[in-house]
Amino acid sequence: MAKEYVKVRADFLPDGSIHPLMFKKEDGERVLIDRVLDVRPAPALKAGGQGVRYTCRTADKICYLFLDRERWFLEE
Question: b vs e for 12-30, b when ≥16 Cβ sit within 10 Å of the residue's Cβ?
Fold first, then answer.
């Protein structure tokens, strides 16, 4: 599985945390994030790489959204 880099819209909170709200895939599909279930530093086991992993619930599934320095990528 290759990394799919995505555009992310997020809230940056006063305590320094980042709360992703939605992401846009390379094919143009927009996906709203219903809830962030977990945030932790973790490796991307399927796609390779490492960063802060956001476990997100969308309308129909759970996905892993990673922030690797300044770039966001998706591992479904």
Answer: eeeeeeeebeebeeeeeee
Tell me the residue length of the chain: 76
Q: Are 52 and 65 in contact (CB under 8 A)?
A: no
The amino acid occupying position 73 is: F
CA torsion angle 57 58 61 62 (round to 10) = -30
Residue 71 makes CB contacts below 8 A (sequence gap 6+) with 5
Which pLDDT tens digit goes with each residue over 4-61?
A: 999 999 999 999 999 999 999 989 999 999 999 999 999 887 777 788 999 999 998 9
CA distance 76 to 8: 15
pTM of the model: 0.88
